[in-house]
Amino acid sequence: MRFRDRRDAGSLLCRELEYMKGKDALVLAIARGGVVVGDAIAECIGATLDVIVPRKIGSPYNPELALGAVMHDGKCYINEHIARMLDVKQGYIQSAKEERMRESVRMLMLYRGSTQYSVRGRHVVLVDDGIATGATVLVSIAWCRDHKPASITLAVPVMPSDVYEVMRREVDRIAVLLLPVDFGAVGEFYDDFSPVSDEHIMDILGKYKMR
Predict the structure, then answer these.
(1) 118-134: buried (b, 16+ CB within 10 Å) or exposed (e) per residue?
(2) Are strands 66-70 and 76-78 parallel, antiparallel or unpaired?
(3) Rounded-to-integer distance, Cα 121 and Cα 100, Å
(4) Inter-residue contact 70 to 57 (CB < 8 Å)
(5) In sequence order, what are the beta bridge partners of 126?
(6) Between vectors from CA 9 to CA 192 and to CA 123, what angle results, nearest 5°?
(7) Which of 29, 51, 62, 205 yields a CA-CA distance of 20 to 30 A from 197?
């Protein structure tokens, strides 16, 4: 299976989420690509759509290697195994965390004009366009749990099979379409994996603000 684009992936995921209809669900989409997937899901199940912006903390030796991730309010996940293996200093982690927090706040203010959320008691569907290492999703789940939702369902088109084993212990349910053993990058499973612009995200979110 391959997805035409992110909206196609979201539409296919809807089939796994029909049980959420009528549950006052809140789709929390991870920026940027998850917002397009989340839009299709929210339309399908009659949910509210909102955006969250976890930011990856890269290794000092390889920025593409996720050392962890942080939310706008400082909620942080660090892969301690990688940190020890690479002998990453605490000073670097703290500095990178603060920088990524500022990025998250800036993006949230641009997208939604606030960093305040109403999650308590909601049935949350946490959405991204795919998972590679899982750092940003893990910190998103932990942040969401702190806000006392009624439940958390993780909905993603594709993730590695070993990451699935980690994620299923962290959430109430998972909706996923592909669990490849041979996994290189999320974009490999899409015909169109073009970057999502800030303007596109704001256009999507604007539809829900008017409801």
Answers:
(1) ebeebbbbbbbbbbbbb
(2) antiparallel
(3) 28
(4) yes
(5) 28, 154
(6) 140
(7) 62
**Residue extent(s) of CATH 3.40.50.2020 domains in the chain:** 6-54+111-209
Model pLDDT, residue 210 = 55
Can you name the CATH fold of 6-54+111-209? Answer: Rossmann fold (3.40.50)
CA distances from 56 to 17, 43, 45, 138 (A): 28, 28, 29, 11
Three-state secondary structure readout of the chain:
CCECCHHHHHHHHHCCCHHHCCCCEEEEEECCHHHHHHHHHHHHHCCEEEEECCEEEECCCCCCCEEEEECCCCCEEECHHHHHHCCCCHHHHHHHHHHHHHHHHHHHHHHHCCCCCCCCCCEEEEECCCCCCCHHHHHHHHHHHHCCCCEEEEEEEECCHHHHHHHCCCCCEEEEEECCCCCCCHHHHECCCCCCCHHHHHHHHHHHHCC
pLDDT in tens, 124-156: 999 999 999 999 999 999 999 999 999 999 999
- Based on its alpha-carbon atoms, the radius of gyration of the chain, rounded to whole angstroms, reads 16
